[in-house]
Amino acid sequence: MNIKKILRAVLCFFLVLIFPAQGFAADNYTEYDYVPVLMYHHIVGINVKAGDGTVISESQLEEQIKTLLGAGYKFISLYDLYNLKVNRDWNNKKMNNKEKYVCLTFDDGYESNYEYLYPLLKKYGIKADVSVITSRCYDSYVPNEGENPKMDWSTLNEMAQSGLVQVYNHSLDHEKFNVNHGWEFIQKALKAEDQLNWNLTVKRKIHVFTYPNGFTTPWMQKQLKKYGFDMQLTTESKVVCGTTPLYGVPRITVSSGEDGQQLIKEIKKAAARTFN
Ligand SMILES: [Zn+2]
């Protein structure tokens, strides 16, 4: 045992003595104390092997949904998560939820979400949230070579009207945040929000911004919060716990080829990173 470990042990001992009611055991949490937010992208109708990035197959997605349901998870929307978080004690890391919750989020607005995800949401009566690149939702948008088609406003509205999907802001053109162009980034995020407000027929109860490629800084998060974004999604691989700020919601990337049990293991690893 090195000196650092000894000092940490001594510190822990005294903290337990000082704060006995709260306890100090880092691993003293359950699946009811956090909410994993899963991040997906494109879905395909054929089988996909592990190692193909974030592209997943329709059957893989369904198997994951069934496994999570079987494990007792209840699928909630980001708006539900927002409500769980706003009315709570922000000092308590453990959420102590009534059920085991999980959120599904899909980035980039691929048409495959409509083709494969939407029928599954209806089949299982579960919710998911989609973050779109707003300039690509217009019928006039011409995809780049090799780019998978994106959903247009009428498709997004059809899904939103079902009540199973909410549509949020994934920027105007998917340009990554760059510290040297902070104000420009804000202007574009606000323009994208205007496009969502203008084109979506279902009024959203909260405003969510999903960072392209997860790039952000505390300064940017503070700014977007000030400009009215209630929730901001990142790609930090952790779970949402009681002390997680709504302007920095971490998400777990779901990889190609991963089955439901592997996904549950990934959730548990992300929880360990959050609590330990
Ligand atoms: Zn993206």
Provide structural commentary.
The protein is α/β, with parallel strands linked by helices. It has two domains: 1-27; 34-275, Glycoside hydrolase/deacetylase (TIM Barrel, Alpha-Beta Barrel). 38% of the residues lie in helices and 14% in strands. It is built from eight helices and ten strands. It has helices spanning 3-18, 58-70, 78-86, 111-124, 153-161, 182-199, 218-226, 260-275, and strands spanning 37-40, 43-44, 56-57, 73-75, 100-108, 128-132, 165-169, 208-210, 231-233, 252-253. The strands form three sheets. Strands 1, 4, 5, 6, 7 and 10 form a six-stranded parallel beta sheet that branches. Helix 3 (78-86) links the parallel strand 4 (73-75) and strand 5 (100-108). Helix 2 runs parallel beside helix 4 and helix 2 packs across helix 8. The protein is globular and about 55 Å long. The two termini are 19 Å apart. The protein binds zinc ion. Zinc ion is lined by residues 107-108, 170, 174, 212.
SSE diagram, text form:
Elements: H1 3-18, E1 37-40, E2 43-44, E3 56-57, H2 58-70, E4 73-75, H3 78-86, E5 100-108, H4 111-124, E6 128-132, H5 153-161, E7 165-169, H6 182-199, E8 208-210, H7 218-226, E9 231-233, E10 252-253, H8 260-275
Parallel strand pairs: 1-5, 1-10, 2-3, 4-5, 5-6, 6-7, 8-9
Helix pairs in contact: 2-4, 2-8
The structure holds zinc ion.
Notable characteristics:
alpha/beta, globular, binds zinc ion, single chain, 14% strand, 8 helices, two-stranded parallel ribbon, 276 residues, 2 domains, six-stranded parallel β-sheet, TIM Barrel
Give a concise summary:
Strand 8, helix 7 and strand 9 form a beta-alpha-beta unit. It is built from eight helices and ten strands. The strands form three sheets. Strands 1, 4, 5, 6, 7 and 10 form a six-stranded parallel beta sheet that branches. A two-stranded parallel ribbon has the order 2-3.
